[in-house]
Amino acid sequence: MKRLKLYIFSFLLFSFFCAPVWAQNSEHQVLIPHTVYVGDTAQLNISFSTNIDFFEGSNPKENSKNLSLQNFTLPLDDSKYTVKNITLIKNGKTSGTQISYTISFIFSPWITGKIKLPAYKLENDFMIIPSEISIDSIFTAPKISRKFVENKGPLLIPGTTYRIIFKLISFIIFAILIITALINWQTISLFCKNQKLRFLYKRNMKHTFSSLNQIETSNASAKTKAEEIQKTMRNYLTIRFGYKFTNCGTTEIYSGFQNIFQGLLSEKKEDAVDNLTGIFTRTDFIRYSKNGTFENNELGNMIQFLKEIISTFEKEETE
């Protein structure tokens, strides 16, 4: 009788000292998702508390780590399941020296019915003992899950059809424009250059007209006005014909046009060149003669004549 009591006392003493190394898991085990089918990837979470710090010596900010698949107490049965990953998460202290943890087993089952993972040994011989879990077959799922729904076309919000058609037509038009632009790139490039030149010539003409009007109404001397007229017209001719008329003397104006047009000037434009040369000769006289000046109404008539000459140069002739 004394020996039996000794055995009972020894067993209770052993259980008391070994209790801290066994995790209480039956009431803290969670399966995600709740219903697992064959071939699914599932997660088995087991929460437990202990006074052992499994992250001792690690970075204080680190609260999770991957565990080895080699610490199971029994070999894994690959014909029933495959364990892919094991993670230990530190949740924090619960009370006193107790620390809360969650261990996650990521696995895929290959059979239906009950399966049970072997016990897993953590550091310091702390054991995690998973409970049995049930694996369902897809053929035993509720009818609503196994019912194959007939394929139907996408539902369209009222008015969506017109938007789709509009976008399709817009895309086709855009594609046609792009292809046309690529085919006729040289023509389009030439057209753009011509438009740019037209804009430049028009702005040059307006600026010249404005400068001539300012010369006519200014209070400068006749010599200064004559000099400004030549300067303004030389700048106009240089921009309009791309030739350095700013470096040409009065006698070289006509030869400059001959170099540009190679003798192909129309009769009207050739007369305009002659008239321009005459105005340059007259202004040279006013600039360099001792008592040279404009006669009555001569300046206004000259300005008007220069505008007509410019309009002749800007006019596009069919011949």
How is this structure best described in words?
The protein has 319 residues and is an alpha+beta fold. The protein contains 8 helices and 10 strands. The chain has a 5-stranded antiparallel beta sheet with strand order 1-3-6-5-4, with no helix packed on it. It has a 3-stranded mixed beta sheet with strand order 2-10-7, with no helix packed on it. Strand 8 and strand 9 form a beta hairpin. Helix 4 packs antiparallel against helix 8 and helix 7 packs antiparallel against helix 8. The longest helix is centred in the middle third of the chain and has 33 residues. The chain starts with a helix and ends in a 5-residue tail after the last helix. About 7% of the residues have low confidence.
Instruction: Report the oligomer.
Output: single chain
Strand order across the largest sheet: 1-3-6-5-4
Give the overall shape: rod-shaped
**Helical/strand content category:** alpha+beta
Fraction of helical residues: 40-55%
Spell out the helices and strands N to C. HEEEEEEEEEEHHHHHHH
Low-confidence stretches: 11-26, 144-149
Number of helices: 8
Gap between N and C termini, in Å?
Answer: 140 Å
Strand content: 15-25%
**Main pleated sheet:** 5 strands, antiparallel
